[in-house]
Structure formats: structure tokens, C-alpha cells
Amino acid sequence: MVNTLVNSLLSFFSGLETIKYGKELIVFIISLMPILEIRGGLIAAGVLNMDIVRSFIICLIGNILPIPFILWFITPVFNWLKKTKKLSKLVNKIENKALSKKDKIEKAEFWGLFLFVGIPLPGTGAWTGSLIASLIGMDKKKALLAACLGAVLAGLIVGTLSFGLFKGILR
Length: 171
Description:
Mean pLDDT: 90
Radius of gyration: 17 Å
Number of domains: 2
């Protein structure tokens, strides 16, 4: 699924590749997106034949940028959206989906969130982890550190696969 989304976005943004820092902008935007995050950004960077260190830094910044906003503002935004007829069902669905995974974080808090964000599995990542941390009332400073460190771990794992293992297999 991630590969399909990344390839679709690479096609969509293909015009940016020709401008100065266009490839960097593409992987930054992909890294900002929920679901794709640093994983998608690094896969895109590998496809675009970018330098791994530069790609890692750009993707990490893109992935951690939304974390503080999610931690500090998502609950008030959700509460406000629940007051609207059209969006309340969607917000409840998102909350319930996130809270269905709270056991993985709630018991171990910092380490649970770190591993939840850091181990690149479907349905995990900084966006979902930060949302869950916010919804369960986890200390925001702890959650910020855990989610950022988890993003680093996810980046190291996916970067190793995207720039090492997969490239060797594809050649």
C-alpha cells in the first residue's frame, strides 16, 4: 500500500523534480503526510536516487513537524469538530480507530509510544502515536520526545531497507 501511494505521489509531483531542490521538496511533502510519513519519504528518496543522509534529515524534519501540533491541538480541534453534524461521525471513527491501538502505548507510555512509532508496521507512526498519546492524556513533553525518537528509529529501519537491502535486490 505504501509503495503504491508513494509511486502515485511521485507521478503527481513529477514536475517538481526539474526545479532546484524539487526532489527534496517532494520527499519533505510525502514525509509530512499521515500514513506515509518518514517511511514513504525515504522510499520516495530511494526511488529518486537521493543521498541517504540528506534524505534522512529532510524526511525526519517532515515527519516530526506535525507531532507537537497533534499533541497540543488535536483534542480541542476534535472536540470542536464533534459539535458539527457532518464531521462528528468522522472524528469519532478516527478516535475509535486510534484508541483501539492504545493498549500498545498505555501500559509502557514512553517506551510504548517510542516502539509504536519506531517499528514501521501498518497503522503505526508518529501521526497515530501522537494522536493516541493525546487522547489518553499522556504527558505531552514525554510524548513529544518518544514520538520524535520513534521517528528516528523508523527512519533508520526504512532507510536501511530503502537505500541498502532493497536497492541491492532491485539491481
